[in-house]
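Sorry to interrupt, but I need a hand with the structure work. Leave the record below and I will have a look:
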Amino acid sequence: MEEIILIKLGEMVLKGLNRNVFEAALIRNIKRRLNPLGGFDVKAAQSAVYVTPREGADLDAAVARVSKIFGIAAFSRACVVKKEMSAILEASAQYLKPELLAAKSFKVETKRADKIFPLKSPEISAQVGEYLLERYPHLCVDVHDPDITVRVEVRDFGAYVHGQALKGAGGIPVGTGGNAAVLISGGIDSPVAAWTMAKRGLELTAVHFASPPYTSERAEQKVHRLLARVGEYSGRMNLFTVPFAKVQEEIMAKCPEDLFTLIMRRFMMRVGEKIARRESCSALITGESLGQVASQTLQAIVCTDQAAEMPVLRPLIGMDKLEIIEISRRINTFDISIEPFEDCCTVFTPKHPRTQPRLPELLEAERALDCENLTGECVRNAVLTKIYPNQ
């Protein structure tokens, strides 16, 4: 039997005249993600996308990858047959045979998108149900709580039989929302922030601050692995690793200790913005959550924002830690994030960081630093690594 992946679109169907743009982006993303698995034909019609494998393509692996592509509300691995009742009946009995043999009850749901087909949906369901009862006499019909639901869809290109539809990644296709640079650390929050904004269609560039010799090569590799997990959803991305130890040493030597973290974060904003503009990004993304740590009080965030002219997106700002952890577990970044390698945010940490800073104080403290040259040196020395998912 010929199998395909039948994909249902989510909020994209509400995009009106722009819908074609979103569908084209989704098809482009699907082809790019499935290309290493063999040849696939991908086309859109009737609020669905049809992914048909060519000979030798790995359909099992394709199903796993499709589950992580933004813009997909639900998907099914389905059997496709001619739009003839005899073919539909036989496919209903054979394609889901293992599940039907294991079940005690079932029901049939039919969607007739092709209105030219002579039978209406209830008539198709009735014939399929009767046929299945003949082939599997141990079954009974339960329309309220069946063990298995047999789904039949009669569409333009054929008739499709499948079981349970699986939930997709949701959101809108990556690339339809523009480009943004995410400030990424090895912690729990920033990978979740990156994933959250990619789900809203943003294509990502990543900026990571490293502080060798105070931080190790393993800390940087941890960030690479985190981004590879995020990339399973967002697609490939560029990572710029910024050597940051000199900036931190200058701050520690010349500025008040209780302002260290805030001045450091203002430098991160400056460096991140310069890299972001160079990479044609329109915004910065951070993993800040209001009140989580001393540098994430409202006053501290206001002071941090003043260092950048570019919009700063903070998708986690209203989440608590448990909500963030729940997402990180769902996208498989949590186990990597809790690996105990120091990153630049955890070195030189002051004993008593300021939680209610005043901007004039910070500006005065920064007069002791050559901010422009330090920022420029960070940008010039940033190292580019290309991050590919599924590697």
Observations:
- The mean pLDDT is 94.
- Residues 260-278 form the longest helix (19 residues).
